[in-house]
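hiii, so i know i said id send this last week but things got crazy w the move. better late than never?? heres the sequnce for the chain we talked about at the cafe, plus the structure i predicted for it. fair warning i was half asleep when i ran it
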Amino acid sequence: MVPFVDVPATMRVHGPALEAALAQVIRSGAFINGPKVQELELALAERVGVKYAVACGSGTAAEQLLLMALEIGPGDEVAVPDFTFIATAEAVAAVGATPVCVDVDPLTFTIDPDSLRAAIGPKMRAVVPVSIFGQPAQFEVIEAICREYDLLLLEDACQSLGASRHGRASGAFGVAGFTSFYPSKPLGGIGDGGMVFTDDELLAERVRSRREHGHEGRHRHRVLGLNSRLDALQAVALLVKLRTFDEEVEMRNAAARRYDEALSDVLAIPHIAEGNHSSYAQYTVRAESAQARSSLSDHLLTRGIPTAVHYPQPVHTQASMQSYIERWVDTPVTGEICSTVVSLPLSAYISKTDQDRVIAAVRSWSAVGRAALSSS
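okay and structure toks below
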């Protein structure tokens, strides 16, 4: 079986250094926050190009903490893409604000500025564009819209650490950005974790307070917060992986280029916008129909090749969102993408042998599976 994301291979590469770093933390007894977490915060703030980074328990928690720190809540609307993982909208609902789902660009799958503009109303407070699949959104356009309507811009960089737009690192756009260290992410840990990025010192302090129950000193709590701290075991694991992170992003890009060259004549391959450097959290292609996607996935699975659909339905249609979403603009692109996208196996350490198996299977489906669809 070809691994969809070869996390074990990544762990093998970093194994000895990881084991030594984890043992050091275990011996230290400093498991929550502490010097290693602070070291990671400083290292990633420098890498992203911001003044402050605040570690927390997950990417979802990072967004929720930011919204809380910015006092976004009941009566406020926050624009999010309709095509993304549900966490982006879920965090908005969790603070009592109303998610407004907008459409995405048909080529990059990032938030569509025209759809965003159409969704802006008097209650809109913020916009959370997702730099999806490792590719930053059209931030110069979105920033201009936010200035025009006095909206806060928060970048969801949960899938795009290591990416950039016109030389500016993902995570550094807007008032603040946030990311995830889930193991399959471009910079993945050995469990959950997240980080907030900002140049605003006061905002960073507010997030720090809220990640620890809103404390302002031992047993003094001025505001409500969460219990969402990063443990030192995650921090040292990420510090070890950070040493080779740039190299691994380029390895993802090299693997993506191999797919591009081999599959561009049989599938709609990812479109990377001019000025963008992707970290390829996913290699997501489009089939011509829902039936073709299903046929392709089935064909690959019979050959030991898993696929994944990111994402099979618009956010505004999720059952958990029905009590929170009051309105959304028409999102026809999202509907079409949800029916046709499929992600192929890709990670920094995917072997050429495994990748060649994927390529051969996709091409054989193109020759055989399409014909079967046409005749049915």
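btw The radius of gyration is 21 Å. thought thatd interest u
miss u guys!!
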